[in-house]
Amino acid sequence: MKFGFIIPHNFGLDDPDDVLNIGKRAEELGFDSVWVNHHILNVGYIFDRLGSKPYYDAITVLTWVAAHTERVRLGTTVLVLPYLNPLLLAKTLATVDVMSKGRLNVGVGVGALKP
Fold first, then answer.
1. How many angstroms separate the CA atoms of 9 and 97, rounded?
2. Which of 32, 68, 91, 110 is buried most, with the most CB atoms less than 10 Å from its CB?
3. For residue 108, what are the β-bridge partners?
């Protein structure tokens, strides 16, 4: 059995160092993976809970964590494909995977932004 958790990068963490420290701490504690959620912007029911707090990009957050860790796997819960250019996404994900030495897991879907 493997254990991982979602870094709350777009649900209220204002400070990028807090986001990074969660990823680093996951590795220190022996977790197998860290994951990030993907939405382009903060809307509706999410905005009602969080207000105007930062809503960081998922792949950029994984890149930030990858640069400061060595072992923990890095994953996207679901990248919402209709929002993204497939060629640029493939290139970006391949780059993150190579630079992280093969630690990237990718989940994809069509999205369902409903309350």
1. 20
2. 32
3. 79
Tell me the C-alpha distance between 73 and 51, whole Å: 31
Q: How far apart are CA 27 and CA 35, in angstroms?
A: 12
The candidate with the shortest Cα–Cα distance to 108, out of 94, 92, 89, 91, is 89
pLDDT at 48 over 80: no
What is the mean pLDDT of the segment spanning 19-40?
A: 93
Amino acid (one-letter) located at 114 = K
Highest-confidence segment of 19-23, 48-52, 55-59: 19-23
pTM of the full structure: 0.85
Angle separating helix axes 58-66 and 16-28, nearest 10 degrees: 50
